[in-house]
Every structure is written in structure tokens, then in C-alpha cells.
Amino acid sequence: MAETPLVSLLIPICNVEKYLRDCLDSARDQTLQNIEVICINDGSTDSSLAIINEYVAADDRFKVIDKPNSGYGDSMNKGIEAASGKYIAILESDDFMELDALEYMVDRCESEELDLLKCNFWLYWSNPGKELLYRHNWFYTAVGPEMELMGVHRAVDTPEIFWAKASIWSVLYRRDFLNENNIRFLPTPGASFQDTSFSFKAFSQAERFACSSRAFVHYRQDNEKSSVNNPGKVFCVCDEHAEIERFLTEDRPDLKPELNMIRAKMKFYNYQWNLYRLANPLKLEFLPRYSEEFRNEFKTGSVIALDEGEGARYAFNKEEYQDAHDIAFDSHYFGVKFACDDTGKLGTLINYFKAGGMKYALRAFRDKFLR
């Protein structure tokens, strides 16, 4: 290419031949032509590398990093190091994007001098029996339209962004911003959910942040190989939150007073999601660690209830606080839920009584029938 690209589009790839052409076509056909597309092949054993090489041979904007399998985080870090564009975007290899995506995001970042811009996205199913797509509701539930109306601001001034889905592939990042703040992925081999700590580091240090309700990326929901469908990744989310705590303690202690309670609520949401996605035997494996870590969160004052006044925006509501407290100090009760539920109202209460006496039966009645 004769000129420095405006955007380096990073595409991590591992055994995704079924969807890869849709992804690469959407990158190739962007209305913004001044881009480089860096395909990081993470030891694919299917035809993914051959497909990548077709695009590299046909279009000099495409590049390939071919390496032995070392995991998502390492792939992404290698892509960032190889990038030469002013901005960095990420596209998962089983997803695809609207053709004006990069042009829109660059125009916004340039005109508003942003560190990063976060957009909405579409949920997508290729199965014709499903509704094909609809815009994800994170923007309206977790974030709210007022964040878009705020224009350019510090991300930490709107803590709701931290417990929205990370969706790092719906964000455009200024490359200098990532490098100056040493924002990288946790390169744990075989791990999942490595967008968690990366996203936290980026938002926590963004001085000029904006949000758009425009949706560009089609986020595929029916890839049977997706990490969200892998029940073996029980503790990966814990590794990500350990990295967030390390980041605030060692790298940016100046941010810790402002972000520690935000971190704790984000952790609660992530751990709750992880708990409920697991099969029941794995739930019981995850609970002890969840319980131990949240006992420490309570002891250090990181979990506060809404009625405690300060920090209402990142306080736990009544139900969240009760769930976090149960997990921290009475995880047996929480574990009973996975054995006693779905037996009818009377059967459920009888099972709770057998597991923990009247105390558990009354609590189950409150949680299930009075909330």
C-alpha cells in the first residue's frame, strides 16, 4: 500500500472455515478502502489458512500472521503489535460487518478526537428457523440512550458501560491510545472471555469516549464451536478479574478509588453469568471460588447496597446484594438452588426444608414467590 492505513482490522482465526468467507468479504468490501486486514491464524487445522491466503493473494491490503496455536489473547496481542493504522478495529472470524462500519466509526473518531468509540451490534442467526437478526438491547438496558446524548466524555463518568457486554469488536480504538496505556490482552493459553480485562483497561483509561446506537457488526449466535458454548471454561472469567485487580493495584493505583466498586459490580455480573451458563455439576465446582472471592469483596467494603447512600450508580440493588451475600456467606443455600428448583412450588419448598430446615424454606419462599 502506498499510504499508511487509517484502520488496522484484526481478525483472529482458528478453525472457522464454515463462516470465514462471509467475514473476510465484509472486510474487503468496506466503503473505507484505506485499511489493512490482519488475519491472525492461530494454528487452524481446517482450511482456514488456505482461505486466508486466497484473500492475501488477491488484495494487498490483506496480511496473515500464521502461528502455532497459543490462544486468543496471544493472537490479539500479536495483531496489535503488527498494526500500523491510526485506529484498530476487531472482527471475530465467525461474524461480519456492515459495509459502511469502518467509514462511520473513523469519521466519528476523527471529528471528535476520540480515544475510542463504542457502537451497537446485531445478534445474528444463520438458521432460517430463527429470526435473522435484531439489534442487541445492551444500549438501552445497560447503557441507556443518555450516554449517546452525553457526547464526548470520560468512560468512568458512566459506570454502566463497564457492565454492558464487552463486545470489543463493536469498538474503534486509537492505536496510540492502546500503546501509550499498555492495553493488551491476557495471553492465557486455551482461555476464554479475554475481552473482559482488555475492555476494562480501555474504558477505565479513555479520556475521550463516545457511544453510538448505530449497529454494524452481525454477532453470530449459532456457531457451535463458540467459546460461550464450551462448559469446560469454568474459571477463565476468574483469571480475567484477577488481571483487572492486578491492573488497578499495580499499574493504575490512582484509578482504584474511583473504579474499585465499579469493578466489584462488574465482577458480580460476570460471575453470575458464568454460574448460570454452566451445567449443574460445574456450577457446584465454581461456587466455592465464587464464594471465597466475594467474602473478600464484602470484607474490603467493595460491595455496597443502594441504601448506603454513596455511589448509588454502582451500588448493588436489593436482590443483587442478597444474592452476593448468600454466595459469600451461605453458598450451601445457593448450591441447593441447583438441586431443588423445578420441582413445583410445594416440592421446591419441601426440598429446601430438607436441605437446610425452616431457614432455607422461608428464604426460598421469599426469593421465589415474593420477589
Provide a concise account of the structure shown:
This protein is α/β, with parallel strands linked by helices. It contains 14 helices and nine strands.
- The proportion of strand residues reads 5-15%
Mean pLDDT across all amino acids: 87
DSSP summary: helix tally: 14
Number of strands: 9
- Taking the alpha carbons of the first and last residues, their distance comes to 61 Å
Task: Give the low-pLDDT segments.
Answer: none
Task: Describe the sheet with the most strands.
Answer: 9 strands, mixed
Structural class: alpha/beta
- Can you write the helix and strand succession as a string? EHEHEHEEHEEHHEHHEHHHHHH
Helix content: 40-55%
What does this structure look like?
This protein has 371 residues and is α/β, with parallel strands linked by helices. The chain is built from 14 helices and 9 strands. It has helices at 17-28, 48-58, 72-82, 101-112, 138-143, 146-149, 175-180, 195-205, 236-251, 256-277, 280-299, 318-329, 331-340, 345-370; strands at 7-13, 35-42, 62-67, 87-90, 96-97, 116-124, 133-135, 171-174, 209-220. Strands 1, 2, 3, 4, 5, 6, 7, 8 and 9 form a 9-stranded mixed sheet that branches. The chain is globular and about 70 Å long. The chain starts with 6 loop residues before the first strand and ends with a helix. The model has no long low-confidence stretch (mean pLDDT 87).
Task: For the structure shown, list the relevant keywords.
about 15% strand, globular, about 50% helix, nine-stranded mixed sheet, 14 helices, alpha/beta, about 375 residues
